[in-house]
Design brief:
Elements lengths: L2 H19 L5 H21 L5 H15 L18 H4 L2 H14 L1
């Protein structure tokens, strides 16, 4: 994979994550949604005549699993952000992380 292609894929992934975080889903639910989206994309490829269904689904699964081998860095505001921090207050993923962190402390 070229550096240019890797950068484009990283940009798309970042945008998808940012958008998904606004839905109120937990991070686990967002991961499930991405897996479902991968399978739906494979089905769209079948409909477009790219290859038979079993081949498209197998390739999608392989690409999805290969993505986990990639190094990623994610920067998210600290879960202990001040209460008035608008970005943290509006970020459901941070709110979920904060709730889980707090429940472990009690």
């Amino acid at each position: 994979m070229t550096d240019e292609l890797r950068a484009k894929i990283g940009t798309v992934a970042g945008k998808l994550v940012q958008e998904a975080m606004t839905t109120g889903l937990t991070w686990e639910e967002i991961v499930a949604a991405f897996g479902l989206a991968a399978k739906a994309t494979a089905q769209a490829a079948v409909s477009a005549g790219e290859a038979p269904a079993d081949e498209c689904v197998a390739r999608a699964r392989s690409y999805f699993e290969d993505a986990f081998a990639q190094d990623v860095r994610v920067v998210i505001a600290d879960g202990d952000a001040p209460k008035g921090d608008a970005e943290a207050d509006e970020n459901p993923l941070l709110a979920t992380a904060r709730r889980r962190h707090m429940s472990r402390l009690h």
